[in-house]
Design a protein that fits this description.
The chain is of the alpha+beta class. It is built from 18 helices and 19 strands. The relative contact order is 0.15. It binds flavin-adenine dinucleotide, D-malate and zinc ion. The site of flavin-adenine dinucleotide has 38 residues, from strand 6, helix 5 and strand 12. The site of D-malate has 6 residues, from strand 17. Keywords: FAD, Flavoprotein, Oxidoreductase.
Length: 521
């Protein structure tokens, strides 16, 4: 055994963390010849939308059970997870069937009532809460698994199934969901599809554009599009479901999801390593791919500032497994079918990394509880970021070679403006290295236009300059509709508008979001 491996020690047993719980600003820059119209000031309420009246509520009561029409204590439904976006809706509906969703939308479309589809409300771009008084269509009462076929691994379920519940049910059948997020205890599978969520297993099981087999969707006028296919192959016409994946509730309400699920791995290994530079994070990723190849299921990184935040707030009983602190941490996970084989591969990788000097220290989880503890450090970061009072989140993708440079440049930018340590508490970085996806988080005591204008357009110009995307996985919502031209050309945005008009000609679904605003919508 290599002498370096003595640095790799068994984790002490400690508490398994429980499952995690669950504006717009001025930019005057012209891009691609398009002026970015707003980004700090809310667009005005569209006067074309009707205010909900007693006769509308009476209609909804006539088609839904009493408890499915809620008009009081609506604070949590009007407020997003970050406490950044606040709506003023006075009506939340909880349909139980696709037919009820269809009747609700037909009434809303006929009467020009604006609607916000809402899943678990864990979204991070203000997409799932109203901007003004839009009716909230909450999907949590549609939470049944409709069918599971173990031969194909395809499950068909209601859109309101909570991801973690789905995972538990599938677990009993020997399968897992193809995606996993820190928000799994609250987010819905329908919300995941609507945002095209990426998450922690993307590297292994890929995008929802590949794993979703079919969708049942209700369009704005109440039409039910039943495309709950369970087929892996189907080349009959335009693949309409792909348009709804990532459409963030702007084209239709997803009521049912058919999704491929992988077999539950017989062997899961988790290691955490400490590194002294981001260059070594990248070198470690290269070696990890070569050593682990088909069993690699996650490769997540975070910086020491992220870990400090998690530990200082003791989120979910987290503890530092190392004696020293390192500038960077990487969590490596494998999903395989033979523990001995996977162990040998992981040990081989860690020896190589120690000998090569890419990694300074490391621990390997010895059981599921320790694996959960290591994952707890990673999954607690989003919650820790918001503890300062406010957090500005940027979820961006770019070539891996410059992934961490944005964090360093943003820190320097804040320092040069005299904001770091005062108006801004922390600038931290973490994310999904294999996907080229950085989560840049800037914490501050409160949300202010001043901090916002220090960050934007700096961050979007940086991303555009490095040929990146302004949203890798969280989507556009109310936060990024106006800045879409940083990532998409006017021609592409033009076609997106045509698609929106085809499915929702009156623009009642999730208005003021997703696309740059026009005068009327
Ligand atoms: P909501 O927040 O309720 O809604 C999100 C958007 O989808 C809104 O625009 C809403 O209108 C629309 N929508 C919801 N349900 C439907 C429906 N049935 N039909 C049509 N439109 C609908 N995201 C990632 O991609 N990767 C991560 O790793 C990740 N980790 C997270 C960790 C934490 C702690 C938190 C708080 C969030 C995380 N997110 C992550 C963001 C968020 O959880 C995901 O975007 C998730 O997919 C949203 O699901 P939801 O059910 O909460 O949707
Ligand atoms: C994550 O990877 O943890 C999520 O996308 C949430 C976040 O960025 O905070
Ligand atoms: Zn993420």
């Amino acid at each position: 055994m290599s002498p370096h491996l003595s640095l790799l020690r068994n984790l002490p047993k400690y508490l398994r963390p429980s499952a995690p719980r669950s504006s717009i600003r001025p930019l005057g820059r012209a891009l691609h010849g398009t002026s970015i119209a707003f980004a700090g000031h809310l667009p005005p309420r569209n006067a074309g939308f009707k205010k909900i009246e007693e006769q509308d509520r009476a209609f909804f009561r006539s088609i839904l059970p009493e408890q499915a029409v809620r008009t009081s204590d609506l604070g949590p439904f009007n407020t997003d997870w970050m406490n950044k976006y606040h709506g003023k809706s006075d009506l939340v509906l909880f349909p139980r069937t696709t037919e009820q969703v269809s009747k609700i939308l037909k009434h809303c479309n006929d009467n020009s009532i604006a609607v916000v589809p809402q899943g678990g409300n864990t979204g991070l771009v203000g997409g799932g809460v109203p901007v003004y008084d839009e009716l909230i269509l909450n999907m949590s009462a549609m939470n049944k698994i409709r069918h599971f076929d173990s031969a194909s691994g395809v499950v068909v379920c209601d859109a309101g199934c909570i991801l973690e519940s789905l995972e538990e049910t599938l677990g009993a059948e020997g399968f897992i969901t193809p995606l996993d997020l820190g928000a799994k205890g609250s987010c819905h599978i329908g919300g995941n599809v609507a945002t095209n969520a990426g998450g922690l297993r993307f590297l292994r099981y890929g995008s929802l554009h590949g794993s979703v087999m079919g969708l049942e969707v209700v369009t704005a006028d109440g039409t039910i599009l039943d495309n709950l296919s369970i087929l892996h192959k189907d080349n009959t016409g335009y693949d309409l479901k792909q348009l709804f994946i990532g459409s963030e509730g702007t084209l239709g309400i997803i009521t049912g999801v058919s999704i491929w699920t992988p077999p539950k791995p017989k062997s899961v290994k988790v290691a955490l390593v400490g590194l002294d530079s981001f260059k070594n994070v990248q070198a470690t990723y290269e070696k990890t791919k070569t050593h682990l190849n088909e069993i690699l299921s996650a490769f997540e990184f975070w910086d020491k500032e992220s870990l400090k935040l998690v530990l200082s707030h003791s989120i979910q009983g987290t503890r530092d497994p190392f004696d020293d602190q390192y500038p960077f941490y990487v969590l490596i996970e494998t999903h395989g079918s033979n523990a001995e084989h996977d162990d040998a591969k992981l040990q081989g990788l860690l020896e190589d990394l120690m000998e090569g000097g890419e990694v300074v220290d490391g621990v390997v989880a010895q059981d599921e509880s320790q694996s959960q503890s290591l994952w707890g450090l990673r999954e607690s970061i989003p919650e820790a970021c918001s503890k300062a009072g406010a957090v500005y989140k940027y979820d961006v993708s770019m070539p891996q070679s410059v992934l961490y440079q944005l964090v360093e440049d943003m820190r320097e930018h804040m320092r040069s403006k005299g904001a770091l340590g005062s108006k801004v508490t922390d600038v931290i970085g973490y994310g999904h290295v294999g996907d080229g996806n950085l989560h840049l988080n800037i914490s501050a005591p409160k949300y202010t236009d001043e901090v916002q204008s220090l960050i934007e357009p700096f961050v979007y110009e940086w991303i555009q300059g490095h040929r990146g995307s302004i949203s890798a996985e969280h989507g556009l919502g109310v936060m990024k509709g106006a800045v879409l031209p940083y990532s998409k050309s006017p021609e592409m945005i033009g076609y997106m508008r045509k698609i929106k008009e085809a499915f929702d000609p009156k623009g009642i679904l999730n208005p003021y979001k997703y696309l740059p605003l026009t005068e009327s919508k």
